[in-house]
Amino acid sequence: MTSGLYTGPLLVLLCLLHASEEACPSICLCVSDTVSCSSSGLTKLPVSLPSFSVTLDLSHNHLSWLGAASFNRMPRLENLRLAHNQLSSLGYGVFTNASGLRNLDLSSNKLHMVEQHYFQGLWRLEELLLYNNKIAQVEAGTLSGLSSLKKAYFSLNQITHFPFFSIRDHSHPFLTMLDLSSNRMTRLPWEDVKALPGLVQRGLYLHNNSLLCDCSMYSVFWHWDLRGYDSLKDFTDEHICTIYGDPRAPIRFLRHNRFFHNCTVEKAVSQPVTVFLSNVLVSEGQRVRLDCQTSLSSTDLSFTWLSPSKGYINQASINDTLISLFPNGTLEIQAAKVNDSGLYVCTAVDIKQALNATREVNVTVVLPAAETFNTGYTTLLGCVVTMVFILMYLYLTPCRCSCCKQPKHPVIPIATYDPSTLTSVFSQSSRDQPKIQANKHVAFMEPMMRDAGTEWTPES
Ligand SMILES: *[C@@H]1O[C@H](CO)[C@@H](O)[C@H](O)[C@H]1NC(C)=O
Ligand SMILES: *[C@@H]1O[C@H](CO)[C@@H](O)[C@H](O)[C@H]1NC(C)=O
Ligand SMILES: *[C@@H]1O[C@H](CO)[C@@H](O)[C@H](O)[C@H]1NC(C)=O
Ligand SMILES: *[C@@H]1O[C@H](CO)[C@@H](O)[C@H](O)[C@H]1NC(C)=O
Ligand SMILES: *[C@@H]1O[C@H](CO)[C@@H](O)[C@H](O)[C@H]1NC(C)=O
Ligand SMILES: *[C@@H]1O[C@H](CO)[C@@H](O)[C@H](O)[C@H]1NC(C)=O
Ligand SMILES: *[C@@H]1O[C@H](CO)[C@@H](O)[C@H](O)[C@H]1NC(C)=O
Ligand SMILES: *[C@@H]1O[C@H](CO)[C@@H](O)[C@H](O)[C@H]1NC(C)=O
Question: With a 6 A CB cut-off, is 339 part of the ligand 6 pocket?
Fold first, then answer.
């Protein structure tokens, strides 16, 4: 009984002590795992940034320099927003020990070059935003090691050369968006571009550059157009090239192809390339069969599949009893996993006639029922629930106790919540929702959300 009376305040004291260690810089706003110091007039980083933050927003400030290992005390950092600052370069080791980063927004700064060392060690990085800088050069090794990269935005810069050769099937298996639109590229290394993984070609944006009209360029775009890529469909009129580099006579080459009549591309490729795109939706654990029916009718075809999770699959490389490739090209996955989702590309090759055809299947594997929560969501939920309990404890419990004089054992939520009880806790917290919103402690979420809305508008 007495011990119950003492442990409550003691724990709160411990909590407060712990909290003061992790104080939110006075200029910033901290809520659960998010720290926002945006539009605060910062010229350098706040001295002690809380180590718990997953999202750190430093956008709309005057930062012009970041020291080495600036974020090494933040082991959980995943989202770093540095848009709209004055950064003109990044020194060595800025992101040392920040290898948990998934989203890095450096858009609308003054970077004039992307050096090889900038993103070293960020092997978890999924989204890299560099649009609207002054980048003229992207060094060759910049993207190597970024093996989780999904989307990279380089639009609205002054790039003349890009290291396409550094992006290969196994170096960037998840890359599906590479935005190089609105730059200053005149000649592209078309052989390197054609060797890009299929998914990268599908998500490559090159409109509004200063391309020179020639047959090798036209041939590449002709193929992409045939495959119906969105990057071409959505920006048909922005795909321009100039003859002999004369900017006064830009040609919208996806609309007007008479300048390319003498190119041999169409004759050479008019029969073989046929692309089908179909969608397959299965539940986890189900068997999936993807067929590779193409326009090729020969009985002597060899088939290769490119799978998002397992790379190339052909008869020789099959080394997995859970996957089979039939002689007719059908790929069978015994028990689909969520991880198996993505775009599968089958290439059928008729060696005798030197003809190729592709078939693409977009596979989406869903969990059987809505029983599982996304882990990021549950973490956030845990934080919200903990906060609600702390607020309730701090503001409500003393009153109730003094009024009713009931020796009630206080419930103090420590971070050890049981996932199995999460659903019931969740329903309780959603009932408390209106109360939280009326509370001034959470009012600062509003400007942050507005900010996020303007910050993360996709640029392409
Ligand atoms: C990075 O982390 C490692 C181990 O976690 C530590 O030994 C090292 O000192 C850290 N580096 C810096 C620059 O903080
Ligand atoms: C094309 O690029 C230039 C800069 O290179 C930019 O100012 C302009 O807004 C872009 N136009 C479109 C339609 O994206
Ligand atoms: C195509 O070739 C013909 C004959 O070689 C030539 O007269 C014509 O000007 C060429 N057209 C273009 C657009 O280069
Ligand atoms: C089969 O897979 C194992 C492990 O995944 C690997 O060590 C082995 O080299 C593979 N064999 C072939 C023939 O690819
Ligand atoms: C390919 O072969 C498999 C196994 O023999 C069969 O189940 C499948 O229906 C065939 N696919 C096509 C498109 O004929
Ligand atoms: C998905 O793949 C990752 C790494 O490839 C693995 O760690 C994870 O366990 C997989 N998840 C499932 C549900 O199979
Ligand atoms: C056909 O595919 C093979 C192997 O995938 C490749 O080596 C060859 O260059 C392709 N041919 C054409 C015309 O695309
Ligand atoms: C594949 O399907 C998913 C879900 O339906 C969709 O989000 C994605 O954009 C599709 N991908 C392609 C390349 O069509």
Answer: yes
